Amino acid sequence: MATDHPRHAPSAAAPRPTLTKKLFFRPAVGLWAVLMAGVAPSAFAVPPKVTKAVPDLGDTDVDPALTQIVIEFNQDMSHDGFSVCGGGPTFPEVVDKPKWKGPRVFVINVRLQPDHDYEFSINCPAAANFRSAAGESAAIYPISFRTGSSTTKAAKRLTSKENVAAMDECRRLIDEAYSYRNLRKVNWNKQFRRYATKLKKARTPAEFARTAAKVLAPAKDVHMWLQVERTSFPTFQRRYKPNYNLSLLPQIVPQWNDHNSVVSTGRFDDGPTYILIKSWGSNNPTDLEPAFAALSAASPDKGVIVDVRPNAGGAEPLALEFAGCFVREPATYSQSAFRTKRKKSGFAKPAQRVVEPNKARPAFKGSVVVLMGKGVMSSCESFVLMMRHGAKAPLIGDTTFGSSGNPKPHELGNGVTLVLPSWKDMQPDGTVIEGKGVDPDIRVKPTKADFKTSDPVIEAAIKELKKRAGSR
Questions:
Q1: Would 49 be classed as within a structural domain?
Q2: Structural domain harbouring 118
Q3: If DSSP codes are grouped into helix, strand and coil, which group holds residue 343?
Q4: How far apart are CA 100 and CA 107, in angstroms?
Q5: What is the pLDDT of residue 33?
Q6: In 10 A of CB 402, how many CB atoms?
Q7: Residue 287 located in a structural domain
Q8: What is the number of domains present in the chain?
Q9: Does residue 254 share a domain with residue 166?
């Protein structure tokens, strides 16, 4: 089944926090930030990116005597704000106020411990105050590394021969295993030639993976990444304008209850039950239970609103289990064709994916609507199709992001694993979802200002449920 994108590739799409001029440091959270004021992002500005970090993502045997973490950007930056995000024992001990050294270089003075894992990110969904001189927030850049000790032997360095073999294997896999190779229209030969020298000279698996991520970046595929032990190296981070305001929902949905990090519920006075599901993936399989409980208690006459607008996917079987509560008979919701060398077309015969009634849970026989938007991708795109074709539920909001790849790992032989999409995910009529998404039945086009005091997508859902109740 389809899976979510890697955990070390945080999305940059979350709404930005309220901006002030106050400098703060919270040791318990480990977040350093200066919140900016008075910088208006340009509509035409290109988001800045981190081009170099010392130490960098995936580095090992870092000298514990290192006293500075250096971050370099690809364009001139505003010096009015910054966000270094992280927390707990993996956040470096900062010994002085971080500072800028020139227009593009940021320095954090630290005190590191030997034999220790460190992890933080430059910008994050909760704070994105590293901005360009034009006011555009920098892309989120995760950094994780491990320090060595005085007794640690130097790690074995990769050889040019190993790297050439890994590069050739990576190139072969793009041609023979990547399910969206032809869809992306990337000149892969040119890409590999451009970075060939750096790939050959990579001293460590992490260094090779960082460069390979740049090779693969033009695909703009969130289901393609590299892995070195426990560290993921994303090739692409999506950005989108959300059609929701999570912080406002508790104020506009009556009887609001945050059950856990995944499920929140509410019920409108003399109206429908509201169920927000933020993910189909969780470390705790019981996290979805409050959603089932709310559904069992919902009135069939008033209906149910299922809100998955911030849901980026996860485990498709969980989505099938929940959708099955609304389904009365089996229905095909998707097709999937796996990449294979055994067929001339390069793909196996498409398989039909079917949603069936969930006989282990109480069935909901009333009206249901589903709220969605650009935040929806991967297995959650499968969910909205389950609800459209199986539950006959109208989809309300905006087109989904359009990315579902069922990623599979491939060893490159030098300590690096390449993860590639293995299938073409399609709607029942054969329309490929990748790069297109799923269109809503009822499109709502709110402005950003609308979400300061209201939620037009929820309002459209309530209107639709009332119309359906009146026609019964």
A1: yes
A2: 23-147
A3: coil
A4: 6
A5: 52
A6: 17
A7: yes
A8: 3
A9: no
Structural domain contains residue 205: yes
Mean pLDDT by 10 residues, the chain (472 residues): 36 32 36 46 72 91 92 95 92 92 95 92 90 92 86 74 98 96 94 97 94 96 94 90 94 96 95 96 85 96 97 94 97 95 89 96 95 97 98 98 94 97 96 96 92 95 89 61
CA distance linking residue 284 with residue 290, whole number of Å: 13
Residue-level pLDDT at 323: 98
Alpha carbon distance 162, 87 (integer Å): 37
Beta bridge partners of 417: 227, 411
Q: What is the pTM of this model?
A: 0.80
Strands 395-397 and 368-372: parallel
pLDDT at 472: 59
> What per-residue confidence (pLDDT) applies to 354?
98
Helix residue ranges per DSSP H, 156-234: 160-176, 181-184, 188-201, 205-216
Can you give the CATH number for the domain in which 467 is found?
A: 3.90.226.10
454-469 core/surface letters (b: 16 or more CB in 10 A; e: else):
ebebbebbbebbeeeb
Query: Do residues 32 and 84 both lie within one domain?
Result: yes
Show contacts of 354-357: CB within 8 Å, 24+ apart. 354/330, 355/320, 355/323, 355/324, 355/327, 355/330, 355/331, 355/386, 355/389, 355/390, 356/320, 356/324, 356/327, 356/330, 357/324, 357/327, 357/328, 357/329, 357/330
Q: In what order do the strands lie in the sheet with 395-397?
A: 257-258, 263-267, 273-277, 304-307, 368-372, 395-397, 442-443
Q: What is the pLDDT of residue 44?
A: 53
CA distances from 305 to 29, 325, 356, 385, 395 (A): 35, 14, 20, 16, 10
Q: Which helix (H) or strand (E) holds 389?
A: helix 379-389
Contact partners, residue 167, CB within 8 Å, separation at least 6:
192, 196, 199, 200, 212
Q: Are 322 and 199 members of one domain?
A: no
Instruction: For residues 191 and 89, state if they share a domain.
Output: no
**Assigned domain for 5 exists:** no
* Distance between CA atoms of residues 131 and 152, nearest Å: 38
Contact 219, 180 (CB under 8 A): yes
